[in-house]
Write a structure and sequence with these properties.
The structure holds 2 protein chains of 2 kinds. In chain A, 0% of the residues lie in helices and 51% in strands. Chain A has no helices and 11 strands. By secondary structure, chain B is mainly β. The chains are: A mainly beta, B mainly beta. At the A-B interface, strand 5 and strand 10 of A face strand 7 and strand 8 of B.
C-alpha cells in the first residue's frame, strides 16, 4: 500500500520561503497523481496542489490561494514529492499533508496520507 | 471557504445510527462528480472511509455507508461505537474552480 513521510515544516516569518518534502515508499510517485493538502489549526481540509504524469512531462495544478507562490515538484530518482513555498503569509499556517490520489484527477479520492508537517508563519 | 456544507456536529448513543449530510451545488456533487468521505481521529491524519460515493476501502467496517442524490451526499454510521468519535469530511471535485473541494467537517460525539 505504501507510506508517505513529510518533513521540512517549521516557523517562518511572513514573506519567507520553505520547502517541504514527502518521501514515498512501497510505490512509485512517478506513476501516481500526488497532491499536497493542508489544514489550518482547528479548521478543515484544503487541497493545495497536484502533480501527475511521468518524467519531464509532469503536469501541475494549484489552488487559487497558492497559485504563483507555491511550486510542486517531484524527484523520481528519490521517489520524493516537494512543495516549494514562497512569499509565505500568516494564513499559510497549517499542517501540510502529502497524499496519493486513487486513479486520475477529477473523481479520485485521496487514498493514502502522510502524517503531516506543521508550517507556522508568524512575525 | 469550504464549498460543501456539513452540520458542525452530530451525536448518538453507542449502538445508535447517525447520519452526516454533505450539501453541494451544480458545479460539484450535482454535476455527478464522485463524493468521498474521510475520518480524522484526534491528532491524526485523515483516513479514507468511503470512495466513489458508496465504496469502502479494505478494512473499513461495513457499519459505515455512503450515498449520493442530486446535489447532496450522506454518510451513515450504524451501531455507533466509542472509537467512531472523530471529525468527518466529505470531498468532491468542483468544475467551477477546477479543484478538489472539502466539506466544512462534522464532529461525531458518542454519548
Amino acid at each position: 500500500e505504501g507510506q508517505l513521510v513529510e518533513t521540512g515544516g517549521g516557523l517562518m516569518q511572513p514573506g519567507g520561503s520553505l520547502r517541504l518534502s514527502c518521501a514515498a515508499s512501497g510505490f512509485d510517485v512517478s506513476t501516481k497523481y500526488m497532491s499536497w493538502l493542508r489544514q489550518a489549526p482547528g479548521k478543515g481540509l484544503e487541497w493545495v496542489s497536484v502533480i501527475y504524469r511521468g518524467g519531464s512531462d509532469a503536469s501541475t495544478h494549484y489552488a487559487d490561494s497558492v497559485e504563483g507562490r507555491f511550486t510542486i515538484s517531484r524527484d523520481d530518482s528519490k521517489n520524493t514529492l516537494y512543495l516549494q513555498m514562497n512569499r509565505l503569509r500568516v494564513d499559510d499556517t497549517a499542517v501540510y499533508y502529502c497524499a496519493r490520489d486513487m486513479g486520475g484527477w477529477r473523481d479520485a479520492s485521496f487514498e493514502a496520507w502522510g502524517h503531516g508537517t506543521l508550517v507556522t508563519v508568524s512575525s | 471557504q469550504s464549498v460543501l456544507t456539513q452540520p458542525p456536529s452530530v451525536s448518538g448513543a453507542p449502538g445508535q445510527r447517525v447520519t452526516i449530510s454533505c450539501t453541494g451545488s451544480s458545479s460539484n456533487i450535482g454535476a455527478s462528480f464522485d463524493v468521498h468521505w474521510y475520518q480524522q481521529l484526534p491528532g491524526t491524519a485523515p483516513k479514507l472511509l468511503i470512495f466513489g460515493n458508496s465504496h469502502r476501502p479494505s478494512g473499513v467496517p461495513d457499519r459505515f455507508s455512503g450515498s449520493k442524490s442530486g446535489t447532496s451526499a450522506s454518510l451513515a454510521i450504524t451501531g455507533l461505537q466509542a472509537e467512531d468519535e472523530a471529525d468527518y469530511y466529505c470531498q468532491s471535485y468542483d468544475s467551477q474552480s477546477d479543484s478538489k473541494v472539502f466539506g466544512t467537517g462534522t464532529k461525531v460525539t458518542v454519548l
